[in-house]
């Protein structure tokens, strides 16, 4: 299907992914000769659309996706982003190495640290594998529909994807380290293919998820990653980043990034090659838990 927009003639092909705010569709702009992921935004979500555009377009960082708004002749609003290889949710762990992990982890800390600069104080509030895009091995932070700047005042609305929210975020407490927590949980998931706080989500009704995860935080300690010798510093770094006590957590993405860099350097000192496949690191220690399913974003 080809439709006319103010950005040119756009052909919709097939659905790439389904998210809480609509489907991402592979699209080709015949006027420009460019590929995109396109999302048709319905009127009830215009608030988040304009919020995303206002924040994301003001950011200028090599690892942050800049969306573009285009409008059809019928007045439909379509959000265009560059077409990537997929999200972190789509990666094949048997093809990833420690070098891949190091690369994306530091890139994302850099992007988040840029957002957290005192002149911006921007929180993403929905960092998770599905909102991190991969292109040629590089990572890009995407989907700023729930983002806000603390320069505009404290926000108490509860948004995001429950498994990746800190206990503070689940209780409506605004803190920059909430995004650090979410990023650390995502990195933990990439390494282990599981969530640090295990819960069977299959039988949970969506309206109950926030309360379920808040209870989970109060009653469960993070699972040990059980990584081999030499990885203790990386494990401790991630455990600190997902601490329930905000005072014990890294206060900024910049601080978290420095700690991650030190942890990867420690691996080299232990004799590990960065070309070591991730599966060789984590498959030595099989776990009984089933990998957590990506959960649809719920807006309270």
What does this protein look like?
It is a single chain. The protein has two domains: 2-82, Phosphorylase Kinase, domain 1; 86-282, Transferase(Phosphotransferase) domain 1 (Transferase(Phosphotransferase), domain 1, Orthogonal Bundle). Helix 2 runs antiparallel to helix 4 (177-192). It has helices spanning 46-56, 98-115, 167-170, 177-192, 209-219, 232-241, 253-269, 278-282, and strands spanning 2-5, 8-19, 22-29, 34-41, 68-71, 77-82, 86-87, 122-123, 132-135, 138-141, 148-149. It is globular, with a radius of gyration of 19 Å. The chain has 300 residues and is of the alpha+beta class. Residues 284-300 have low confidence and may be disordered. The longest helix has 18 residues, at 98-115. It has a six-stranded antiparallel β-sheet. Strands 7-9-10 form a three-stranded antiparallel β-sheet. The protein is built from eight helices and eleven strands.
CATH architecture of the largest domain: Orthogonal Bundle
Number of domains: 2
Mean pLDDT: 84
* Low-pLDDT segments, ≥5 res: 284-300
- The spatial strand order of the largest sheet comes to 1-2-3-4-6-5
Q: SSE order in H/E notation?
A: EEEEHEEEHEEEEHHHHHH
- Under CATH at level 1, the class of the largest domain stands as Mainly Alpha
What's the count of strands?
A: 11
What is the overall shape? globular
The major beta sheet can be summarized as: 6 strands, antiparallel
């Amino acid at each position: 299907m080809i439709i006319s927009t103010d950005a040119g003639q756009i052909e919709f092909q097939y659905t790439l992914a389904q998210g809480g705010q609509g489907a991402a569709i592979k699209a080709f702009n015949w006027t420009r000769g460019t590929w995109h992921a396109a999302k048709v935004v319905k009127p009830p979500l215009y608030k988040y659309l304009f919020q995303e555009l206002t924040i994301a377009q003001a950011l200028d960082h090599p690892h942050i996706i800049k969306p573009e708004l285009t409008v059809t002749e019928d007045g439909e609003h379509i959000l265009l982003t560059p077409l990537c290889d997929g999200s972190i949710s789509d990666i094949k762990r048997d093809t990833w190495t420690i070098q891949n992990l190091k690369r994306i982890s530091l890139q994302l800390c850099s992007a988040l640290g840029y957002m957290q600069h005192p002149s911006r104080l921007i929180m993403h509030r929905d960092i998770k594998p599905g909102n991190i895009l991969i292109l040629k091995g590089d990572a890009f932070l995407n989907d700023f529909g729930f983002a806000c700047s603390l320069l505009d005042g404290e926000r108490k609305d509860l948004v995001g994807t429950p498994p990746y929210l800190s206990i503070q975020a689940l209780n409506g407490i605004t803190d920059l380290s909430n995004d650090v927590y979410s990023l650390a949980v995502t990195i933990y998931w990439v390494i282990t293919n599981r969530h640090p706080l295990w819960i069977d989500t299959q039988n949970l009704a969506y309206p109950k998820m926030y309360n379920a995860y808040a209870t989970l935080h109060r009653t469960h300690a993070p699972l040990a990653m059980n990584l081999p010798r030499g990885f203790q510093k990386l494990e401790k770094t991630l455990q600190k980043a997902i601490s329930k006590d905000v005072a014990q957590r890294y206060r900024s993405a910049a601080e978290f990034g420095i700690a991650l860099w030190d942890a990867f350097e420690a691996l080299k000192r232990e004799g590990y090659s960065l070309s070591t496949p991730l599966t060789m690191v984590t498959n030595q220690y099989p776990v009984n838990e089933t990998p957590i399913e990506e959960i649809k974003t719920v807006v309270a």
